[in-house]
């Protein structure tokens, strides 16, 4: 198949949506498909264009067999709702030259658009309507719903306009998929999707990300002792998670010399967290950059407890991608989730983590204290078993590939019938 992927994020980003879209593109190439990508310069989660791409405009490169067209765009130093809108819109506009080339070229067998940003689906929706090409829309989160629930957008007229644009895109998508059962339900409740929403979860390479003994962890490299109790948060330092709670928890543990908090990552919220650590004169919190993929298993083996924090209002609107790696590494996750959501139910049903109330410093402190005093081996074993059974990269991508082939077959049958 000739496949076109459109996404603001792509490899070599180490975390978030770009990691998964990049791995998907590489896997499709490995299956013999011809893959072309229209994307932006890599910038996430640092919110800064990566060094080797700075100062460049439109460029084309090949990544693991996929031809990748990159566009310049606006990346704000401080992320606000308005600046994020400008950031996303600038990508849409700068990608137009590539779309003009696509429009006059040979039609693709399928266009895969990955959201958010939700509105980048406008151009693929128009293109696929003109060229009679199927559009696969993959929702990594429900961006407008989340912005509304988190209070990031409050103007009702503007929200209504955004929902109307979203409906326009959803109605013109041949296939809509998303990453959790809860998000499948919420997408279906919009009542505009032509076919049942497809579950296409995020995955993990469980042969590469695996449990390691403490001796092979990064404890020595990071100056930690074998008997330290290590609480790790790794990933994007953004607005969804309410990460100030980590600093509040660290204040309560500052008298326990062997309890250490590691924060690995970058993002718009990092400066605020660092300022709080200075304000409270905490010596039990350290910040580190995101580790390269080849060190991920070693980083995860460093921790006794892994933090997966979300705000209440984000429940079932986004499923934290970091969880897949934690589970594959046999880690015990301390997860803030609301009962009845997919995240809560999965963790509870398979007993592979400790659940706490979201947005509560007291609940986080109690959860960390419980984890530090508990034998976590059952959670760790269950986590690894779940990852191998349900999150295997090859299994999930093979199922996705089968769906793509079924889509191609149905399109061919329709053309023959006409």
TrEMBL record:
User: Has keyword Transferase?
Assistant: yes
Annotated Glycosyltransferase subfamily 4-like N-terminal domain ranges read 15-203
What the entry lists under Gene3D superfamilies is as follows: Glycogen Phosphorylase B (3.40.50.2000)
Taxonomically, the superkingdom here is: Bacteria
Q: Which residues form the Glycosyl transferase family domain?
A: 216-383
Q: Which UniProt keywords apply?
A: Transferase
Q: Which InterPro entries match?
A: Glyco_trans_1, Glyco_trans_4-like_N, Glycosyltransferase_grp1
Which Pfam families does this chain map to?
Glyco_trans_4_4 (PF13579), Glycos_transf_1 (PF00534)
Per UniProt, what is one GO molecular function of this protein?
A: hexosyltransferase activity
Which PANTHER family has this protein been placed in?
SULFOQUINOVOSYL TRANSFERASE SQD2
Q: Which NCBIfam families match?
A: PRK10307.1
Please identify the protein, giving its name as recorded. WcaI family glycosyltransferase
Source organism of the structure: Spirosoma agri
């Amino acid at each position: 198949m000739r496949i076109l992927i459109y996404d603001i994020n792509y490899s070599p980003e180490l975390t978030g949506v770009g990691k998964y879209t990049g791995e998907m593109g590489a896997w499709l190439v490995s299956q013999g498909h011809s893959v072309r990508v229209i994307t932006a310069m890599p910038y996430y989660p640092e919110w800064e264009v990566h060094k080797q791409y700075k100062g460049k405009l439109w460029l084309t490169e090949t990544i693991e067999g996929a031809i990748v067209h990159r566009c310049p765009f606006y990346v704000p130093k401080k992320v606000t709702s308005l600046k994020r809108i400008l950031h996303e819109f600038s990508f849409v506009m700068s990608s137009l030259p590539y779309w003009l080339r696509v429009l006059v070229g040979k039609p693709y067998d399928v266009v895969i658009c990955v959201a958010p940003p939700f509105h980048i689906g406008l151009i693929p929706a128009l293109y696929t309507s003109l060229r009679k090409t199927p559009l696969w829309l993959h929702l990594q989160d429900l961006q407008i719903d989340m912005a509304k629930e988190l209070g990031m957008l409050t103007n009702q007229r503007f929200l209504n306009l955004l929902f109307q644009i979203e409906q326009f895109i959803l109605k013109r998508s041949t296939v809509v998929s998303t990453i959790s059962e809860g998000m499948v339900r919420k997408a279906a409740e919009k009542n505009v999707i032509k076919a049942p929403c497809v579950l296409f979860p995020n995955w993990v390479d469980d042969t590469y990300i695996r449990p390691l003994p403490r001796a092979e962890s990064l404890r020595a490299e990071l100056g930690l002792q074998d008997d330290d109790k290590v609480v790790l948060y790794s990933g994007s330092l953004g607005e969804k998670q309410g990460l100030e709670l980590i600093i509040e928890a660290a204040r309560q543990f500052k008298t326990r010399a062997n309890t250490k908090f590691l924060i690995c990552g970058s993002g718009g919220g990092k400066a605020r967290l660092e300022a709080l650590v200075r304000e409270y004169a905490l010596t039990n919190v350290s910040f580190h950059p995101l580790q390269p993929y080849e060190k991920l298993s070693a980083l995860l083996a460093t921790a006794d407890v892994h933090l997966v924090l979300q705000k209440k209002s984000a429940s079932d609107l986004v499923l934290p991608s970091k969880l897949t790696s934690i589970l594959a590494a046999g880690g015990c996750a301390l997860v803030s989730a609301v009962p009845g959501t997919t995240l809560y139910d999965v963790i509870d049903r398979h007993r592979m983590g400790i659940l706490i109330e979201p947005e509560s410093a007291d609940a986080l402190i109690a959860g960390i204290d419980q984890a530090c005093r508990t034998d976590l081996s059952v959670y760790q074993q269950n986590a690894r078993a779940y990852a191998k059974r349900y999150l295997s990269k090859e299994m999930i991508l093979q199922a996705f590939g089968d769906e793509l082939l079924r889509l191609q077959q149905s399109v061919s049958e329709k053309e023959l019938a006409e």
